[in-house]
Amino acid sequence: MKMTALATKISDGIARLELNVPGETVNTISSSVRRELESVLDDLKTDSVVRAVVLISGKQDNFIAGADIDEFVALKTRDQALGLVQDGQALVERLDTLGKPIVAAIHGACLGGGLEAVLACTYRIATEHPKTQLGLPEVRLGIIPAAGGCQRLPRLIGLRAALDIILAGRTLGAKQALRRGVVDELVHPAILEAVAFKVARRLADGWRPKRRKGGLAGQLMDRNPLGQRLVFSRARKKIRMKIRGHYPAPLAAIEAVQHGLSYGLTAGLDCEAAHFAELSVGDVSRNLVQIFFATTALKKDPGVSGDVPTAKPVENLAVIGAGFMGSAIAGVAAAKGEVDVRLRDTGLEAVARGLENAHNSIKARLARKRIAVLDQHRIRDLLSGGTDWSGFRRTDLVIEAVFEDLEVKRKVFRAVEDEVKPDCIIASNTSTIPIGRIAEVTKRPQQVVGMHFFSPVDKMPLVEVILTDRTAPWVTVSAVAFGRAMGKTTIVVRDRPGFWVNRILAPYLIESTQMLREGVPIEKLDETMAAFGFPVGPIALMDEIGLDVALKGAAVLHDAFGDRMMPMDGIGAMTERGRLGRKSGRGFYIYGRGKKKVDPAIYDIVGRAPDRAVPDDDVTLRLTYAMLNEAARALDEGVVRSARDGDIGAVLGVGFPGFRGGPFRYLDSVGSAKAVETLEELALKYGSRFQPATCLRNMAERNGQYYE
């Protein structure tokens, strides 16, 4: 049987300990792996010949991806969770107390329990390679680092730096990890093992590394009890404002770190384990883990069922339209997709502005230390632009991002088809116009697809790939693969009015304007839905989208679905007065100097003075159930392929609260019968737009749910 952990004796008493889980592409720490590794470590500890150990991975581009998440998901009780985490702590403790120096030779992902393991090593060497990533992402799964991460990281790099990583679930590139002090040295992958053995020999001979202590600030804040109290107080205040009581893990992590620094490592480990046990079987963690599984599955989903054709590689991309969206798509495609990008517009000034915007997005990545200076220059060289069709003959994919007008887009598609090679894919970034109607004027409608990016492109993680009834499977697979290459989570959507995200978002926004007309104050609408878990409230969101864009989308949906998608009359009047939202400095809010405030003049436009007497529960029910009901209808119509895709699209594209799992997991938690009952009550009180979707009624009759 192939061993997971194999220790080989090397000259000078240095043992090579290779971790290589059989039959898996990555190393994860399961119960069986842990037991085998513990046995090997016990042998190394008692072997008098061994003076030091080099811990290295046998996988091509992975060190340790973390604990086995399948074992985590299988947990049913707090006691089971406590036992699992204590076993993990015991393994890391064996590394920490081996009594012989251990050098971690890190290449590839070193995350969660993997990083906690190497924190217990004497010295850490990482490769200066993009695939080498180190981090503690546990809070993103609703849990905390509990194999010593909350104890050893603050002791290694200082309290403030450690909290920054732990509380954000932050993942660091190798260079960032070196700057933070998480690793001691960077090397080229080709010499990783050789350097690790050299360091191991030095450590075996008595050498010990000298590490930075953080200077005066470190003395005052990280290692001084008064300074630590101030750091913890500020961290709690900042986190409470951010999580609004919905995500318990960050506050639990703060407590685990503080407890360990106050009472010692052992007490800190006990605190970690207790919090992990509580959090891991809670609803928040369960929902966040399911989102993790779903997004992971989408990374491997080709977008079609049955026989999967080969994706066409995209090496050359053209973007038509150098405005806000087009330039942003070009910048992200160059930076993440690493393809040659040609940006085209009708005027040289527009092209110059577009290239400048794309370059600025690359500069921002450099400022956030996501890329190095040399990377910045290399990525900039991938971008070019002009007003003619130069370079289009070698283009594999064209993305149109021009003005949201059907005839304008059709004109672009007619022109593009004559300038590209026969197998070029042509995509539209439209947010409202049916792809099939654009494709009607083309010679090759089977090669037309929608690729709906969301603003801001560099931050929003979702892309909708929109299929017409004629889109060829190889085109679907290619568009999905390229969206993924750009670092996006990609869902496949049918070409129906509003697609998925705007289809379910529209009733939510429209209902908010209906409540505004009834006198509910803007602040109350936004504050209530932010308290429910949305990143911003519905009125603020309309300002972010742009009222002109929202108005166009609402018109398309009103034509398709009638009165239940009736937009507020006042929005048209607002756009006519130049109130376009944040981008114009004035919408429902007034913007200036980084702040915003409600514009009282809005109530004159609406024709109703504000009245805060409406209960918060009434606001929450009307807005959430407007979205939930439409989501049920759209899934039943096949707009998305599954509840999984719908939930991920809602969480990443709409901002539906992740801790609630998405609209379909939320409906399952409420129960279909209760959801129908609530909708019927809302329909009686507020109108037929709340009549439950037929599919929801049918589900309630059989007591069904979306997820087994």
Architecture overview:
The protein has 708 residues and is α/β, with parallel strands linked by helices. The protein has three domains: 5-281, 2-enoyl-CoA Hydratase, Chain A, domain 1, CATH 3.90.226.10; 316-494, NAD(P)-binding Rossmann-like Domain (Rossmann fold, 3-Layer(aba) Sandwich); 501-701, N-(1-d-carboxylethyl)-l-norvaline Dehydrogenase, domain 2. 51% of the residues lie in helices and 13% in strands. It contains 30 helices and 20 strands. The strands form four sheets. It has an eight-stranded mixed beta sheet with strand order 13-12-11-14-15-16-17-18, sandwiched between helices. Strand 2 (14-19), helix 1 and strand 3 (52-57) form a beta-alpha-beta unit. Helix 5 (149-157) packs across helix 6 (159-168), helix 6 (159-168) runs parallel beside helix 10 (225-243) and helix 20 (501-517) packs across helix 27 (643-654). The two termini are 36 Å apart.
Helix percent reads 40-55%
Question: How far is it from the N-terminal to the C-terminal residue, by CA?
Answer: 36 Å
Biggest sheet layout: 8 strands, mixed
Number of strands: 20
Radius of gyration: 28 Å
What's the number of domains? 3
**Quaternary organization:** single chain
